[in-house]
Design a protein that fits this description.
By secondary structure, this protein is mainly alpha-helical. 42% of the residues lie in helices and 10% in strands. The protein has helices at residues 38-64, 81-91, 103-115, 122-126, 141-156; strands spanning 8-10, 28-30, 71-72, 95-98, 131-135. Helix 1 crosses helix 2. It is globular, with a radius of gyration of 19 Å.
C-alpha cells in the first residue's frame, strides 16, 4: 500500500505515554471513508509506530539540543522492511538495521563476556556491530510535515476520553 488513504491509527489503549503522558487518552482510528481499505488500515498501524517514534525523538532533540544523524533500530519489528522505510520517511533520517536485531539479548551476552574477560574493552564490542541494511527518506519535507500535522490532529482526538470520577471500562 503506497499510502494510508488519509487513515490514522493512534494506539492509545492505556493512554498516551512519552512524550504526552496522558492517561485519559484512548485509541482511535481517524479519517475513515468508504474508500478506506484494509491495506490503508494496516499501513496506518505501521505508520503509528513511526509517528510515535518521531514524537519521542523530537522531544529528545528538544531536551538535548542534539539532533540525530541516523536512527539505529533493533527488535522484532525491524524485520518489517516497509516499516523501516516508513520510519526513514517519517523522520527524514536514515534508518539503519544491524545484522543482529535482538540487541537486548546481545548486550547481556556482551556484558557477561566483558565480566569474564572474553572481550577486553568496549571498543572491541563496538567493532562487533555490523550494518545489515539502511533505508533513506524517500518523501519530501512538505509531505512529511503535512502527514505529521494529520497525525497530531488524530492524537488530539484521543484526549479527554476518560472523564475524571467516572469508571473507565477496562
Amino acid at each position: 500500500m503506497p499510502d494510508n488513504g488519509g487513515v490514522y491509527f493512534v494506539p492509545a489503549f492505556s493512554g498516551l505515554f512519552a512524550p504526552h503522558w496522558r492517561s485519559d487518552a484512548r485509541g482511535i482510528i481517524a479519517g475513515l471513508t468508504r474508500y478506506a481499505t484494509k491495506g490503508h488500515l494496516a499501513r496506518a498501524a505501521l505508520e503509528a509506530t513511526a509517528w510515535q517514534t518521531r514524537e519521542v525523538l523530537d522531544a529528545m532533540t528538544a531536551d538535548s539540543g542534539t539532533p540525530l544523524a541516523e536512527l539505529r533500530v533493533d527488535g522484532g519489528m525491524v524485520r518489517n522492511d516497509l516499516l523501516m522505510q516508513i520510519q526513514a520517511d517519517v523522520l527524514g533520517l536514515p534508518v539503519v538495521r544491524p545484522r543482529v536485531t535482538e540487541t537486548t539479548a546481545l548486550g547481556a551476552a556482551y556484558a557477561a563476556g566483558l565480566a569474564v574477560g572474553y572481550w577486553s574493552s568496549m571498543d572491541e564490542l563496538r567493532g562487533q556491530w555490523v550494518e545489515d541494511r539502511r533505508w533513506l527518506p524517500q518523501i519530501d519535507d512538505r509531505r512529511r510535515e503535512h502527514e505529521y500535522a494529520n497525525w497530531k490532529r488524530a492524537v488530539a482526538r484521543t484526549l479527554d476520553w476518560v472523564v475524571p470520577g467516572e469508571a473507565d471500562a477496562e
